Amino acid sequence: MNSRISCIAANTFREAVRDRVLYNLIAFAVLLSGAAILVGQISIDIEKLVVINLGLTAVSLFGVVIAIFIGIGLVSKEIEKRTLYTVLSRPVRRWEFIVGKFFGLAGTLVVNAFFMAIGVFGALLYVAHKFQMSDAWVLVALYFIILQFLMICSLALLFSSFSSPLLSAVFAFSLFVIGTFSEDLRNFAATATGFTKWLTTAAAYVVPNFSALNVIGSVAHGQPVSGSLILYNTIYALMYSTMALCGGILIFQRRNLK
Amino acid sequence: MTSSRQVTVVASLVLLFCLAASILSLRQIDQVRSKATLEEVLFVISPKMVKRMSLGYDGLLADIYWTRAVQYFGGHHAGRARDFRLLAPLLEITTTLDPKLLVAYQFGANFLAPKPPNGAGLPQKAIELVHNGINNNPNDWNLYYQLGFVYYMDLKDYARAAEAFAHGSELPGAHPFMKIIAAQMAQHAGDNQMARALWMTTYQSTQDKQIRGNAIAHLRALQVSDDIDALQELVGQYGRKTGVLPRSMTDLVGAGLLRSIPLDPTGRPYRIASDGRLQVQFPDELPFLEKGAPRGYTAPQPKHLEELGK
Q1: What is the count of structural domains for chain B?
Q2: Global pTM value
Q3: Which of A93, A95, A191 lies nearest to residue B74, judging by beta carbons?
């Protein structure tokens, strides 16, 4: 990676850590250990199911909230504090700044998810006393959650490149909700006709599709995830993130910073 | 080219490439997860609970549930399913959220009551739904018509059907045919003429494409049934006159029994099988046939009711 990009990414990561973003891990640890102890006492035969569902949902939701609320301020905060001018007065290009910010935020989320994953497996071991082969699918669900983070990071950055933090948060969160229901939009497109069909189909392909990345329910039941789904989801998430990142670069490139 | 322009061009090209690649990969994902789009799951089955959870936005939520109900039935019907277990709860939730959504009651009467694969095979659920509709919209004659229709077609309870039609015919704006149907019910219950009148009224009183298509398909099947009865009679006459069975429709025309070769509702000539039975040429295009299909013929699921109803 370009050294200037890695430098910006490392600084973004450092800044996120200084902002005490990783403190959410404490809340996560309390939630999960509490749940693990509690379900062991009140639920019959579904302790493992509850721990996987709760753990993975928490990893996903904590990460999405962090991605949106850190991502939306990445550009605007730098402009507000005027640190952006110092950075751009050096031999750093605008696109390198955006890409660096993206990798920094993505790195923060991956580290965060890594520690949370350890927590999930710890809780799993506590309630089940041993690991099974089917527990490996939990790793696939975690991998999909990280792909989801990449998409949300790039979208938050895209909105941050032209809008205020508050509006960026609204846009990013709305797209997250729409993306969660994107299959309903696709179903609607399938039954529509004429111009409505054309419009809804286009909308269904442009909004992010998060439903395909959500396999929490099936892995909680030990069901395998097909290799082709892993491959296509990876390609999709990478392409979608790059697309949103390019959109952000194009807007930021033309933005008047005076 | 300046450095800034270079970045713009490259970023635009990468953006377009990634957009195309993401669409292609999404299509592949759809193929891998083809069965995941319409899940056989309703997370909240209590209509009252859904209404409370809507936080007052029940109109919009009703529209979403209505769309889901239509998609659910349409998707399963086209996929030749025989199990429509979510149709009743989806319609119940829809009508609880919006008790004035008349098309949902109409849809329920048409597709909850008939036996699979043409419907969910739950006539009592259909009657409950329509009764709810009448309680919420007591001045709508169409709901009485739907009630009578289910009693007549699916439960063969002609007395209750006549009662429902008579009630509906007294309401303001009722279809003029309602009075005639109610009056003739005692005399013509169970015959094709009455069935045709009912399906015709269904066709005329709805804008829903699936319901209209369903009515057209039934009207066509009734037409074939009447045609076959009349033509079979002529085949018998020809046999009695000549001592042999006619080999084709041309023989009937040649014998002066027909002026021209009769056509089925799809515009194709009827044909005579070697055993003298009258048949349509393409039974797959005439769903709900009771007469006119070749021996041992199994009807496929009618797939394009919506197309037919346009």
Answers
A1: 2
A2: 0.62
A3: A191
